[in-house]
Amino acid sequence: MAPTTASRSGGDSERAGWGSRGPVATLVNELIDVLRPTEQSDRRRRGVFRHIASLVDGCFAGENVLVTAFGSVPLRTYLPDGDIDVCVLGPHELLSRDDWTVRLRAHVERAEAAAAEASAELGSPAAEFAVSEIHIIHAEVKLMKLICDGVVVDVSTNQFGGLAALGFLEEVNAFIGKGEIFKRSIVLIKAWGFYEGRLLGAHHALISTYALETLVLYIFNRFHKELSTPLEVLHKFLVFFADFDWDKFAVSVHGPVPLEDLDKVTGPIGKRPEVHAEGALLTPDFMWRMMDKYGNESVSAKLGGGANSTPRQMARKYLNVVDPLLSSNNLGRSVSQGNAKRIRKALALGAQRLTALRESSTGGECFGAVRMLEQFFGN
After folding, report:
1. Which of the residues 46, 124, 278, 283 has the least number of beta carbons within 10 Å of its own beta carbon?
2. Edge to edge, what strands does the sheet with 66-70 contain?
């Protein structure tokens, strides 16, 4: 059993941080509660997932496939506009071919047409989970994008890395504790990044969700003794990364990595003892256990693929974030050069505004701080 948060943080979990009480705390907690998944939104997404899973099962009946979900929905950190990541697990020779999307799309269109025809004959309303706007995305990870009951769904195949990341983040959340402050902070920072900073969305050449979660995890790992509320996490996130030298360093959960040192990485960063800073929240023992359960090498070995004898080096891009489970995977690779500059400006502006808000609220101007916070999350 993992040690309690208090024992890991030297009792700092009892510290009353910024945003722990008063009007600002009330507003932030209300905001997070509105943004976080509700029973109704969970039920709706479960229904959408079951419908898509039934369509996939019908398409690949008898071919040994399994349908599951990964990402923000099972992690329960999705925003109200969040999509569902659906993964089809099955034989490599079946799902690695380019025609799996063609086959699945044809099956879905036939099934939906038959359902619509049956509804029309019976004079009943259209099916609750009707599928529309099916698109095939030819990206690094090929996927089929569609809309079901107004929810965007991305269907991909054999995304073992995504499933491993889900397990890893769930265990990190439990390890950190403090009333799920990690997940609550992710929701708050995602909301700022999506609605205010406009920097979230890999398909728009912006930051991927997993990259953002990794950045948040680094903030916890290094500054956990200073953090007791999601608002403090957001502020530290903005201030730190606004001043970060992205031209010279990459970010890992253990700290900045000089770009020239990326060429020297020959194994998982989580298993290299020299990267575990003294006083870090994520202890070497915890990270060793996580790498053994969820690390790429471990997952590949369990699937019978074995370890890669010639590890790849991480490709440098304009914003570099090291995957905690696979050091050669750059989670920031989706960010374009132009968007990298815009992201830096958004971080700097956010840090400036939230610092002013913090100074105002700690100076006794609570109601003025509330108005500033409402403007900070104006969208």
Report:
1. 278
2. 66-70, 84-89, 151-157, 143-148, 131-137
